[in-house]
């Protein structure tokens, strides 16, 4: 894999409109979501069908944790009217158990003003649920969408709460 030049800081805003960067984000997503699909016991995991082109044309914001010049983890967010939505938080499996997801989450929660932050994950994804609860998120609702994977939404009130 060819590496793209990043600033030397650990967390960088990623230019997903750059095809090479979008493909690196795609690789992290694929590697991470394959592990998550196995964890929750599902073969047809919707996030795995997202293409590099989808990422390249996305209007969401991407931030990456950079280690050794490579993207080790990605957080994808949408910020609209002080409503912070965490669309995805993925860590490449070769960087698991290093606290990188926590660092990215802390970065986003500390960098943006929001009245409410929200995230969704599979009910069976206990590591993700533990991570979000550790960062002050609380359960909002559970439901089963048409793809059949039971989901959980968690929310966190603004920083002043």
Radius of gyration: 15 Å
- Give the C-level CATH assignment: Alpha Beta
Which class best fits the helix and strand makeup?
Answer: alpha+beta
Order of helices and strands: EHHEEEHEHEE
Range of strand content: 25-35%
**Structurally, how many domains make up the residues?**
1
Mind summarizing the main beta sheet?
7 strands, mixed
- State the end-to-end CA separation: 43 Å
CATH topology: Aminopeptidase
- Give the neighbour order of strands across the main sheet: 1-2-3-4-5-7-6
Uncertain spans: none
Rounded mean pLDDT score: 92
Shape: globular
The DSSP helix count reads 4
CATH architecture: 3-Layer(aba) Sandwich
Q: How helical, in percent, are the residues?
A: 25-40%
Task: Explain the overall architecture.
- It is built from 4 helices and 7 strands, in the order E-H-H-E-E-E-H-E-H-E-E.
- It is an alpha+beta fold and 161 residues long.
- The chain has one domain: Gcn5-related N-acetyltransferase (GNAT) (Aminopeptidase, 3-Layer(aba) Sandwich).
- Strand 2 (61-67) and strand 3 (70-80) form a beta hairpin.
- The longest helix is centred in the first third of the chain and has 22 residues, at 19-40.
- The radius of gyration is 15 Å and the shape is globular.
List keywords for this structure.
161 residues; alpha+beta; Aminopeptidase; 7 strands; 30% helix; 32% strand
Summarize the structure.
This protein has 161 residues and is α+β, with helices and mostly antiparallel strands. The chain has helices at residues 19-40, 52-57, 100-111, 126-134; strands at residues 11-14, 61-67, 70-80, 83-91, 116-122, 138-143, 151-157. It has one domain (11-157): 3-Layer(aba) Sandwich (Aminopeptidase), CATH 3.40.630.
């Amino acid at each position: 894999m060819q590496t793209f030049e990043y600033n030397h800081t650990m967390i960088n805003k990623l230019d997903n409109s750059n095809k090479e960067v979008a493909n690196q984000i795609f690789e992290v997503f694929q590697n991470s979501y394959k592990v998550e699909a196995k964890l929750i016991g599902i073969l047809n995991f919707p996030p795995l069908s997202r293409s590099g082109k989808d990422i390249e044309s996305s209007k969401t914001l991407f931030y990456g944790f950079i280690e050794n010049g490579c993207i080790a983890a990605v957080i994808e967010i949408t910020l609209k009217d002080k409503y912070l939505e965490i669309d995805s938080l993925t860590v490449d499996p070769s960087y698991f158990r290093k606290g990188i997801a926590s660092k990215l989450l802390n970065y986003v929660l500390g960098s943006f003003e929001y009245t409410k932050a929200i995230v969704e994950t599979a009910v069976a994804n206990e590591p993700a649920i533990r991570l979000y609860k550790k960062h002050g998120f609380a359960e909002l609702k559970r439901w089963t969408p048409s793809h059949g994977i039971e989901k959980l939404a968690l929310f966190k009130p603004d920083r002043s709460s």
